[in-house]
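step=encode ok
step=design start
structure_in=
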């Protein structure tokens, strides 16, 4: 009995202070992150419409945008698999292996810029990249336009998606339609969003501990905003350089764009929404578990601030970032015609 009297108030006091601590962390989290909205905002310079989104979905799934007729956006950004390909680095035209891991298209609309190095300012600029990249879809704007013009249903749908334009079937409009579709690929209602919204039971004790570590140990210095990342650039290896398999010497990140010494091995802080679905990790795609990825971040960016148990708690928190995947029905693609350019090796 004596023991009980002595212990119970102690436990109660600890519980009360843990709750106060949770409340403080929640307050910080609300200021630093943000909930994924139910609907994406309007994109500047690309007003959306039902017709445009429907066309963009067709284009996203159409392998005829690739020279070989085999690869669509969905090949590498598989919407049934978290919006990526779950490969270390993507396989493109003629089975060529690209240099980088494919990031997810889910919530990409919330990133300040696209690609691991942020070299595309928005999704419509981005979409023109893979279609032309030799190691991806290997096509050309001219080829894409002749494919689309040769299929009457596409010509008609471009007309509806871009009303008032004289010749709406253009490479540029392809990218605009895809961007409109991608803006719908958002994943609201993750346990973490519900927690931010006030549902205390949405995270378990481990996940709350992980969130506290994420906030107090410094991860938020780089991973902030709605996407928990995706909006600032940092050297990969601030305090300790990762090994060469994880940070291959040949990929210098933003240095390749800016030629500025300070940009050597600088990459965009990866967005962490749905990160549980998008292994393998980092731009080199060599790390298959979240625990390993968290440990590498703790060591390379923050000097080893997390012990093993804490790594597991942070990984548990990151698993609470998996949201409700958009429901995407497969579009019906119109058949090619006698005029459609044939697939080429
Ligand atoms: C990057 C969309 C086709 C592989 C991206 C990103 C987006 C995207 C939005 C940037 C995401 C981010 O930075 O967080 C598209 C669209 C495609 C397409 C709309 C069709 C037009 C492909 C294909 C492949 C591929 C076919 C594979 C062969 C990659 C890779 C990256 C990437 C490896 C990262 C490249 C880098 O950072 O340098 N894609 N993608 N994509 N995609 Fe695609
Ligand atoms: C990537 C978590 C701290 C900058 C990542 C990834 C994870 C992660 C899981 C891989 C995501 C993916 O491949 O999809 C964490 C955690 C941190 C932390 C748990 C705290 C312990 C930081 C800090 C910075 C930073 C402090 C900036 C100084 C980056 C960058 C990448 C990244 C630049 C992309 C690396 C690449 O090029 O592959 N982070 N991070 N992170 N993080 Fe962190």
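sequence_out=
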């Amino acid at each position: 009995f004596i023991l009980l009297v002595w212990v119970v108030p102690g436990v109660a006091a600890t519980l009360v202070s843990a709750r106060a601590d949770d409340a403080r962390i929640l307050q910080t989290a609300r200021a630093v992150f943000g909930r994924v909205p139910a609907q994406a905002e309007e994109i500047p310079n690309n007003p959306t419409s039902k017709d445009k989104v429907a066309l963009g979905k067709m284009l996203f799934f159409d392998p005829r945008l690739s020279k070989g007729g085999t690869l669509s956006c969905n090949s590498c950004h598989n919407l049934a698999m978290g919006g990526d390909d779950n490969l270390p680095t993507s396989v493109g035209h003629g089975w060529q292996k690209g240099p980088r891991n494919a990031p997810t298209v889910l919530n990409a609309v919330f990133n300040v810029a696209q690609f691991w190095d942020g070299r595309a300012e928005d999704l419509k600029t981005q979409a023109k990249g893979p279609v032309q990249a030799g190691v991806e879809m290997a096509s050309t704007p001219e080829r894409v336009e002749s494919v689309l013009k040769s299929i009457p249903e596409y010509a008609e749908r471009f007309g509806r998606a871009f009303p008032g334009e004289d010749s709406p079937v253009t490479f540029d409009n392809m990218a605009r339609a895809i961007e409109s579709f991608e803006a719908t690929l958002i994943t609201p209602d993750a346990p973490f969003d519900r927690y931010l919204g006030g549902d205390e039971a949405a995270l378990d004790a481990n996940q709350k501990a992980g969130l506290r570590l994420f906030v107090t140990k410094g991860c938020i210095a780089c991973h902030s905003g709605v996407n928990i990342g995706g909006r600032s650039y940092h050297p990969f290896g601030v305090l300790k350089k990762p090994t060469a398999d994880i940070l291959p010497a040949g990929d210098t990140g933003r240095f390749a764009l800016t030629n500025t010494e300070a940009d050597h091995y600088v990459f965009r802080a990866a967005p962490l929404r749905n990160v549980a679905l998008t292994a393998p990790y980092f731009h080199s795609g060599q790390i298959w578990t979240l625990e390993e990825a968290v440990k590498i971040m703790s060591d390379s960016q923050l000097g080893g601030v997390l012990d093993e148990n804490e790594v597991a708690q942070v990984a548990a928190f990151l698993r609470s970032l998996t949201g409700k995947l958009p429901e995407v029905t497969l579009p019906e693609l119109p058949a090619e015609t006698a005029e459609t350019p044939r697939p080429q090796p």
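step=design ok
step=annotate ok -> The chain has two domains: 22-38+188-319, 50-182.
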